[in-house]
Amino acid sequence: MEEQINELESALDSFQETTRRDALQRLHELAIKHGLYPEPRPYVNLHCHTFYSYNAYGYSPSKFAWLARRRGLMVAGIVDFDVLDGMEEFLWAGELLGLRTVVSLESRVFVPEFETRVINSPGEPGVAYHMGVGFTTPPRTEFSTRFLELMRYTAQQRNRELLERVNAYLDPVVLDYDKDVLPLTPRGNATERHICAAYERKAMEIFPDPASRSEFWRRKLGQSPTRQCYIAKFD
Description:
The protein is of the alpha/beta class. It has 2 domains: 39-138, TIM Barrel; 141-235, no CATH class. The protein has helices spanning 2-11, 17-34, 61-70, 87-97, 142-170, 177-181, 192-206, 210-220, and strands spanning 41-48, 73-81, 100-110, 127-133. Strand 2 (73-81), helix 4 and strand 3 (100-110) form a beta-alpha-beta unit. Helix 1 (2-11) runs antiparallel to helix 2. 24% of the residues are buried.
């Protein structure tokens, strides 16, 4: 059974929603049959990003709901940058598993009155992370629909402009946003974290020798010759 659970848990991170839904339903059936759910305890995690913005482990909304239920969390919440793409899936997963859930959205705002002061984004004066909490339904009005579309568009344009500047500096490690970055996301909402991961993958292609790649990053990051850069490994 452990092997079966591991396979189904891996399927929870598929970019195909039908695959995730089927895997979660089968996991829930196994959990009910074999008593795998603990009693909820007074612990919560209300701020977990999913792969709809960025999750270092690649967790989907369904995966986080499953792990939260298996660990006996009283309440679990997801939050993604600039989108509500994971909302309906997470709320459905919570209802299926008997898990209390909350959905949030996080974005960046610029506050002109504090343009010389760091608010809560280190190194970025005037920039603040801002959140909305408790979303339960998709946009119901033209205004709210267009507002969310604008948030998504603005974030992606910011990424493309960032990529142009970084490409110029990291040449010959150069990215194509559509080919190298967007495929790392299930629905095209890339973040700076995806860009960083894509640059390291591209560096592995250009500098397959770890020593050469480490030297490339050392020079680009302005490290002293006596300091070696850590080289990440990707499957």
